[in-house]
Amino acid sequence: MSSQPPITPSPPAKAKTRLPGVVLVVALILLVAYVTYNTATGERGSSTGPAAGTAMVQFAAPLVDSSLEGDVNVTQRDAASATVRAACDLHGSEILNSCQLVRLNPAVMVFINSSQGRCADTLDQVIGAAAKYRKLRVAAIVIAGERSEAQRLVAARGWKIPVAEDRDGALANLYGVAVCPQIVYLRAGGVVDGVSVGEVGGADLNSRLRALEGAG
After folding, report:
1. Is residue 96 within a helix (H) or strand (E), and if so which, with residue range?
2. What distance in Å separates the CA atoms of residue 26 and residue 44, rounded to the nearest whole number?
3. Model confidence over 109-146: pLDDT tens digits?
4. Alpha-carbon distance 65 to 112, whole Å?
5. Distance of CA 76 to CAs 99, 108, 168, Å?
6. Structural domain boundaries of the chain?
7. What is the SS3 assignment for 173?
8. Do 197 and 122 contact (CB within 8 A), yes or no?
9. Which residue in 117, 171, 113 sits closest to 142, CA to CA?
10. Which SS3 state, helix, strand or coil, does residue 182 take?
11. What homologous superfamily does CATH list for 21-215?
12. What is the pTM of this model?
């Protein structure tokens, strides 16, 4: 088990996402239901994710195959305090740290659910396509669901990339996820290069990855 402190829910001051008590539960159910419905019906939803050219939302999330439990820490560095640590200051082998992910390399981040289906298939597609590009890193975020389901999915697919858990859906909310899968393309340093919402064609994916590699 990592010696790092547990990840605690601490959203940035400008992006409050936690709701108290039963309201939080209802909000999570509605978010998961909305993403599931749009995924099942093929609707793209109203969100296109973060805008190109904006800074990524910084986060630290527990990996699904770790013993670390807790919500994603999304405290941005400019909102950190003496009592609340910034997400990017949390490190350890059981954590997906967004700042580490893009510190030296461009990255592709894929939001999925814990089910077999087109979201998992898209992540397979991204992993395969990204293997041709030396600089690119790939990570996945599983939205809500049971961790045991996510662990079984990772094992069944044989994924070797970092797969993190967003158990209360807060990170998906901050990234405007309306449809699973959502792919976020990130330049080195953490600037959003673009977003794919829903399934993506092979030619389009390769074009985006090639451009991302070239952008460094």
Report:
1. strand 95-97
2. 23
3. 999 999 999 999 999 999 999 999 999 999 999 998 89
4. 16
5. 11, 20, 18
6. 21-215
7. helix
8. no
9. 113
10. strand
11. Glutaredoxin (3.40.30.10)
12. 0.78
